[in-house]
Predict the structure.
Amino acid sequence: MISGTEIIEGSTRIIVPNNHSINGPGKKTNDVFFNEQMAFNRDVSVMFLRAFSKEMTVADAMAATGSRSIRIANEVPKTVVTANDINTYATLYIKENIRLNNLDNCIVSNKNMHSLLAEEVFDYVDIDPFGSPIPFLHSSIIGCKRDGYLAITATDTAPLAGAHIEKCRRRYQSTPLRGPMCHEAGLRILIGAIAREAAKFNKGITSMLSFSSDHYFRAYVKIIDGAKHADISLSNLIYVSYNPLTLERSYSFEPGREYKYGPFWGGTLFDKKHLLKMNANNMATEKRCNKYLETWRQEIDVPLMYEISEISSYLKKSTPPFDKFIERMNEYGETSRTHISPTGFKTVLSLKEVLSVYTEVLGEMG
């Protein structure tokens, strides 16, 4: 028998350990891991899969309590879910949660995830490890069916965002970037690593939905078979030049003396058509889901965001109302907010044009 606390997440009942994480990335203990703050992360999985409206086999390869597996099986029609965890005690939680929700489309598996994904292939594979996903990329790609989908979480945000440069280089073979766009850079390092790993097997990727939130990065990618697609994916890798003194940032498809950061994924982060099919109905964090969906749908899909504060600091001037600034920017060239930061923006305009518009808006305010 297991002991725990019953919670309701979305429209699903889940038994979780009494001693579980509520805020932040959580701490790994000997108990079965569950983090209450990751409800939004699980909501996005449900929204993402619901938008397909087709039969899909799903592998939650590191399921722990099975919270994600159970929610997908219960809330996404036409899915058959394999909830796998190497911890035998974790499978007791999974079995209890299957019973609690009267599910007949969720299979319990007690295997090493590498073994599971070597033996079976799935339409959708989800990897949500504690820390870096790098040790699991090889197996997760192998476990995806032709034109399957892979969802990867990375909670090692410190190295990815440039706080531990050497660790990032070791794990991801990429030089991270410190600065206002460090979280965007970290997300693009993660996607780039997936693309490079997939290319080893003559597979390409497209990013369906990749984002930065709370203490983690999350990437949903489509795996596309073929050497041609692998080459196309690799052609999307970029190297970045950034000067914090002048705010100049640019990127190149080849590394160089100036372009010393990267490689990063330089392709799109979002499949806007798929985003339009997603909805937040009955989600645990419905208000937050709707807010993110709105932001993702309007976000310009180009690299290298700006922060309004870095412009203010550089010009040594006050900050104009953000909405008014974005509105004026759009009169000169496409500009949008970004989900990366509430005070960040992306634009097709040059730095010189950004500074000019900023000064213009301030001048109108007197």
